[in-house]
Write a structure and sequence with these properties.
Radius of gyration: 25 Å
Shape: globular
Distance between the termini: 65 Å
Order of helices and strands: EHHHHEEEHEHEHEHEEHEHHEHEHEHEHH
Number of helices: 16
Mean pLDDT: 93
Strand order of the largest sheet: 1-11-10-9-12-13
Length: about 450
């Protein structure tokens, strides 16, 4: 969903202009590499923040009434209440194409196996007789999962959000997706079917920043309109307004990351197949005109061959105009490097959401990458595999945030709680150290709280 009812459409370039950034012969610092690699223009961020702040304030102050108006303005639908009726979920599953259902079931099966293996074990450490410190992993009580609408339908994002939350043991799960004019103001039926398949019955037809605000602050019951309880964690990808809303409510709730428009980077050498490189760059450009597709290579010959393939394949694909706009934007292009070493450094500086390795000895090269949301190794691990059926999660950090954040996983929905259990003798053994450190910090009452237990306090 977009934040305005009639967003201007950017002019599509007559020729596909997959630009070149030439780093050859340049010794750049990390800051220099980050400045040099292709990135989306960020001039609209301040404007988005101002609009999102207004939406959050409106939802907080007027609840369901604000959601109704926002649905009318931005989605062109009338709704009494955004909660999706249970019968609509069941009907969507009953009407789901059997082939799509089978694909979703396989995606769920693989994602569950991987998610179940991710849960960390609780830890007990005995530091001395009677001195035990534990770390217990506990799920959050309630989560809000966002599934975008807009230019495509994303039942796969239902799977990617719900499965790790269930594996973590979350007991209360709410899901929101934009209302659609073509489906009587409900989210797309394939979204509803995927939710029903996973046993999620609390689903809302709410899009964009208003969905994030509703999750973070809750919606009180009003008259016959039921309320929406606030959540502890909000996850899921979205456009710039969804990402901005998540940033603004962080601290009120936990978030997975500010996942924005998709991006793919490919590190390739002369051994790579140009047709596969081009196909994978196009696969992500298909998502959105602002999607980023970047090739890092030391081979000018490969870069030229990929350009030829991009022209050919982009002309033939269904969403040709969207693809050509994404590939021609400032966020996309080829980055020429001196060698593999500079290519790895440039990829780490870029910190891609999706990074494909198409080089000789791809596994060894992949093992050297430090910054990426997910790494796809070799010719037979395309990003499309990760989008649907690899078993991995496709909700990943974008815009360079993979340098410090992770993709959605089971630990997103868990908290590590430390438990301290000391006996009298164990506390007495370290009491002198506590008193000494408390004095060094000029916090004598800390020490007195310990000595009081042994009859030696003031």
């Amino acid at each position: 969903m977009t934040l305005t009812p009639d967003s201007p459409v950017s002019p599509v370039p007559a020729d596909l202009t997959f630009r070149t950034v030439d780093l050859r012969g340049r010794r750049l610092s990390l800051a220099g590499l980050r400045a040099a690699v292709p990135r989306a223009q960020t001039g609209t961020m301040a404007d988005a923040e101002a609009k999102v702040l207004g939406i959050i304030a409106d939802v907080r102050s007027r609840g369901v009434e604000a959601l109704r108006e926002l649905a009318r303005t931005f989605d062109g639908v009338e709704q009494e209440h955004p909660r999706v009726p249970a019968e609509a979920l069941q009907a969507a599953l009953a009407g789901l194409d059997p082939a799509v259902r089978a694909a979703l079931e396989e995606s769920i099966r693989r994602a569950r196996r991987f998610a179940d293996a991710q849960r960390p074990a609780d830890t007990d450490v005995e530091l001395g007789e009677g001195a035990v410190v534990s770390q217990n992993w506990v799920p959050v009580a309630r989560v809000g999962l966002y599934v975008p609408g807009g230019l495509a339908v994303y039942p796969s994002s239902v799977v990617m959000n719900v499965v790790p939350a269930l594996a973590a043991g979350v007991e209360s799960i709410a899901l929101a997706s934009p209302p659609q004019k073509d489906f009587d103001g409900l989210p797309h039926p394939t979204i509803l079917a995927a939710a029903c398949l996973l046993g999620i019955d609390e689903v809302y037809a709410i899009g964009g920043a208003q969905a994030i605000a509703a999750f973070a602050y809750g919606i009180p019951a009003a008259g016959n309109a039921a309320g929406l309880d606030p959540v502890d964690v909000v996850t899921g990808p979205g456009n710039i307004f969804v990402a901005t809303a998540k940033r603004l409510v962080k601290g009120v709730v936990g978030i997975d990351s500010e996942a924005g428009t998709t991006e793919i980077a490919i590190l390739a050498d002369a051994t790579a197949r140009p047709d596969l490189v081009a196909a994978d760059l196009i696969s992500q450009a298909e998502h959105d005109p602002k999607a980023a597709s970047v090739l890092f290579t030391e081979s000018a010959e490969l870069a030229a061959a990929v350009r030829t393939e991009l022209e050919r394949q982009a002309a033939a694909t269904k969403h040709s105009a969207r693809v050509r706009e994404a590939l021609s934007g400032p966020q996309s292009g080829v980055v020429l490097v001196d060698d593999l070493e500079q290519g790895i450094a440039a990829c780490d500086a870029y910190a891609a959401e999706h990074l494909e390795i198409m080089t000789a000895d791809a596994p060894a090269v992949a093992a050297r990458i430090r910054n990426a949301g997910a790494i796809f190794v070799g010719d037979y691990s395309p990003v499309s595999l990760g989008d649907y059926c690899a078993g991995s999660n496709h909700v990943l950090p974008t815009s360079g945030t993979a340098a410090f954040s992770s993709g959605l996983n089971v630990t997103t929905f868990l908290r590590a709680i430390q438990v301290i259990n000391y006996s009298q003798a164990a506390l007495e053994q370290v009491s002198g150290h506590i008193v000494s450190l408390a004095g060094a910090e000029d916090l004598p009452a800390h020490g007195e709280a310990v000595t009081a237990r042994f009859g030696t306090g003031a």
